[in-house]
Design a protein that fits this description.
single chain; about 130 residues; alpha+beta; Ribosomal Protein S5, domain 2; five-stranded mixed β-sheet; 5 strands; elongated
């Protein structure tokens, strides 16, 4: 492990961007300077999903995680956070990369919202066709 005060990872999903920093610590997770439970309204499944990369490699109690997240909705933010933590873990311990990669935690989900086109109601939705 390299001598650094923290390990950094960047994750993106839809229109959300998350920047994660892993510090040596006891396992606290803060998102935008709030405890993770408070930021996610005590949603147990979202809290578990955020800590998936740490749980997979049994490092939950080894790092304190601080996250800055912007844009998107809660689902996009959670996926961005998960990717950011996984990337930060690979910078901390390069030997964990294969484990995280097999669990598909290092993949960027590139699906974005398609833009609205002129003359249409949305990206593809049209007015109902009338033959007469």
């Amino acid at each position: 492990m390299a001598d650094a005060s923290y390990f950094y990872g960047l994750g993106r999903r839809k229109s959300a961007t998350a920047r994660a920093r892993l510090y040596k610590g006891k396992g606290t997770v803060t998102i935008n300077e709030k405890p993770a439970a408070e930021y996610l309204d005590n949603n147990k499944s979202l809290l578990a999903e955020i800590t998936d990369p740490l749980a997979l490699v049994n490092k939950q109690k080894e790092f304190d995680v601080t996250i800055r997240v912007q844009g998107g909705g809660i689902a996009g933010q959670v996926d961005a956070i998960k990717l950011a933590i996984a990337k930060a873990l690979t910078t901390a311990h390069s030997d964990l990369r294969s484990t995280l990669k097999k669990a598909d935690l290092l993949k960027r989900d590139s699906r974005e919202k398609e833009r609205k086109k002129y003359g249409l109601r949305g990206a593809r939705k049209r007015e109902q066709f009338s033959k007469r």
